[in-house]
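Minutes, project check-in
Item: structure for the 198-residue chain
Input as provided by the requester:
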Amino acid sequence: MMIAARYSKHALVIAMAVTLSGCGINSIPTAEENVKAKWADVENQYQRRADLIPNLVNTVKGFAAQESEVLEAVTRARASATQVTVDPTKLSDPAQMAAFEQAQGQVGSALGRLLVTVEKYPELKSNENFLQLQSQLEGTENCIAVARRDYNQAVQAYNTEIRTFPAIIAAKVVYGAEPIAPFKATTVGAETAPTVSF
């Protein structure tokens, strides 16, 4: 009788463990940590872009001193964007995500105007330092796109996990999980192609 009771306790513990593992008790935190890691990748790529901008601006400044308005706009946008961050524990706050997206969109727009300005200066376009910086910046923009895509895929997996049965039980009861906001690129100025005037 005692042996049967002991086995039934073990069976109950095993059954509970299997039930809880099927309820998302482990998969929800795993998915959430994956989202945070992907968000860190996004921030890392934006930081890389922010680090390249001063070198790019200084290179252009030597050739195009009269374009100070464009150079100042890039510098201001970079400074503003580095001040806007999103706490990884608050990725479910759409307002924080929107502020971050807007700040990064302004940097992209200012960089676009800077690169259009460069078209006026053939000697700058052939400068080796500028070409290297431009190439690094283009590579960084590609890395940003990949990091945002990976983040959005992780968000989609997490949001799906916390909304589907049986994980929804653990999501609501154990974690109080909220959907995380995906990254949405801003379209400020994207609808109008930049003009080059000589």
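Outcome recorded: The chain has seven helices and no strands.
No further action items on this chain.
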